[in-house]
Design goal:
It contains 15 helices and 13 strands. It has two domains: 174 residues, Rossmann fold (3-Layer(aba) Sandwich); 163 residues, Rossmann fold, CATH 3.40.50. It is globular and about 60 Å long. The two termini are 15 Å apart. The longest helix has 18 residues. It has a six-stranded parallel β-sheet, with helices on both faces. Strands 10-9-11-12-13 form a five-stranded parallel β-sheet, with helices on both faces. It is of the alpha/beta class.
Length: 376
Amino acid sequence: MKILIIDTYYYQFLRNFYIRHPDLPFLPYSEHWRILMDQCFGTADFYSSNLISLGHEATEVVANCEMLQRHWVREKGIGIGERKARWTIGIRKGFIPWPQRMQINDWFYPILKAQIKHYIPDVLHIQDMNGISSVFLHEIRPHVRLITGQIACPIAQKSDFSEYDLVLSSFPHFVERFRQQGISSEYFNLGFEPMILDKLSRQETRYPIVFIGNLSARHEDRIRFLQTVSNSVDFDLWGGGISLIDPTSLLFNCHHGEAWGLDMYRILYNSEIALNHHIGVAENYANNMRLYESTGVGTLLITDHKDNLHTLFEPGKEVVAYRSAEECIELINYYQKHEEERKAIAHSGQQRTLRKHTYFHRMQELVDIVTALLRQ
C-alpha cells in the first residue's frame, strides 16, 4: 500500500528553522527534507517511518514549506508559476482604507497536485484538514483511491469535508458529530515516537515545573488557569501568544519565547513536572499531544481531569489529574516535596506510553482501518 501524508507546519517554526539552517537551499531535496524531519516538529515523519516498518510505502509532504516544495519541482523539472502580488485595499488604524500588496501563493496547489500525480498513492492522508480546500480534493480525486484526514482542533467556518472517505479524530465527540453528518469517522489517538529519546540528553539547566503551549483567543481558560497558578507557584513557560497577556501578569516573568520540535522535547526531558491544559474545543475529553510528549520522555504529567483520561492513563499511578487551578497548585507542591512518588509515577507513565501509545501502534491501527475501506 502507498500512502502519501500531507502536512503543514506553523510559519513561526519554519521561519526559525531556516534562520538556523541557511545552507539548505544548496542541498538535494532528500537531504533538505531529512533535516526538516529530524527537527521532530508535530508528527514529522513518524507516520511514514512506522508505515515503512510495517511493509508499506509512505512519505510526508510539508505542503506550506515553500522553499522545500519549490526544491522538489526543480529537481523533477516541473514548471510552476512564480510568486505574484496584486494590490488590495486594507484597513489601517481600524478605519482608514489603505492600498497594500497581497502575496498570492499560486505555487501551493500546483506543486501539491504535481506531487500527488507523481506518487499516485492508494491513500492520501491530510493532517491539516482546515488547510486543504474541498475543491482541490475533488480535482485530485481521480489520482487516489482513498482520501483520509485527521482533525482535533477548531473547525474552520464553512469547512466542507464531503470529499473525505474517512475522517479520523482523537476527539470522541467529533467522531460522533461527523457520523451524524453522514461522514465516515473513526476514533484515532495521537502518540509518541520513541526514536526521540535517542536525541535527548541531560543538561545542566533543569526546570522544576514547565508549561509549553500556545496562548491565544482560543485559550482563554488556559490563560486564566496559568495566571492563577503563577500567583502561587513559580514555573517556566514557553509558547506563542504572550503579546495577548496583560503586561502586568506574572506570566511575563516566566515566559522564555517559543519552543518547537526537539527544543520542546529537550525542555520536557530536563523538567521534573510538566503541566497540561486542554483547549476548550476538547470539551471534556483528554486528547492533546502533550499527554504523550511529556510522559514519553519520562516527566511527571499533571493534567486537567477529563472523562476519558482513565482510558489512556491511570490517574494517580501514571499521570496526575487536577479539577481546578487550586487543586493543581496543591498537587505541584505535594510532588515537589515527594520526589520518589513523583519519579515512580513519571516512570509508570512513560512505560504506559511506550507500551500502548507509540506511533508504531497508531500506524498498525491506521493500516487496519484503511485496508478495510480499500477492500469495500
